[in-house]
Amino acid sequence: MSRAVPQREYHIVVLGSGGVGKSCLTAQFVQGVWIERYDPTIEDSYRKQIDVDGRQVILEILDTAGTEQFTAMRELYMKSGQGFLLVFSITSSSSLKELSELREQLVNLKDDPNVPIVLVGNKSDLEEDRAVSRAQAFAVSSGWGNVPYYETSARRRQNVTEVFVDVCRQIIHRDLQRGRSGGGGGEDRRRRREDEGDGDRRRRSRRRHNRCVIL
Ligand SMILES: Nc1nc2c(ncn2[C@@H]2O[C@H](COP(=O)(O)OP(=O)(O)OP(=O)(O)O)[C@@H](O)[C@H]2O)c(=O)[nH]1
Ligand SMILES: [Mg+2]
């Protein structure tokens, strides 16, 4: 007989310009796979159960389109999300600049300067092509109210789990501060790619990774 374990469900949205590695980060986190090819995303959603500081939580992760973002769509997923990964590539300074507009839109829409955000500088394996220094990225993160900044490599699976866990932890802390016992939000998803057993990109992984390398 199985014991019912209360689980919280949190909605995480991955935002950023086209080609910065949002889908690769998500695929590494959810499925533990590396995707070499570039296949621009329209919108995909994934579910994954993880352990955050001893709590079982289910993450509903929305991987968004970097290119041709429609403002209306963006507003919809910003409204439904509780935590946000704002991703740029360390090889592209414009991809960092573009995040400021996104963050501003997010804060205005939520009417909350402390919305759970992690700033993610991806492609850290391409150090030789670096166009954004750590100092520049930290300056942005401190200008956003000291949101955490991580450098990740989806290719090498560095700091991938950490960014998802960090944003999840921020949501949990907010819930606790507000005295709520549940997270969640039951908003509709336009395209859901849920766990269907051993499907190609649809697996709900239960792996845990406990590395902690915070830059
Ligand atoms: N070297 C390196 N390449 C990466 C990394 N992450 C992603 N890439 C490559 O960058 C390209 C774009 O990656 P995607 O994950 O599809 O980018 P995206 O942000 O989802 O792009 P859109 O869906 O168009 O918004 C792919 O060719 C990836 O292989 C990384 O950490 N290191
Ligand atoms: Mg994508």
UniProtKB/TrEMBL annotation:
It catalyses: GTP + H2O = GDP + phosphate + H(+). Its main location: membrane. One of its GO terms (molecular function) is G protein activity. Its EC number is 3.6.5.2. It comes from the Eukaryota. The keyword Disulfide bond does not apply. Residues 186-201 have a biased composition (Basic and acidic residues). Keywords: Cell membrane, GTP-binding, Hydrolase, Lipoprotein, Membrane, Methylation, Nucleotide-binding, Prenylation. It is a lipid-anchor. Belongs to the small GTPase superfamily. Ras family. This is Ras-related protein RSR1.
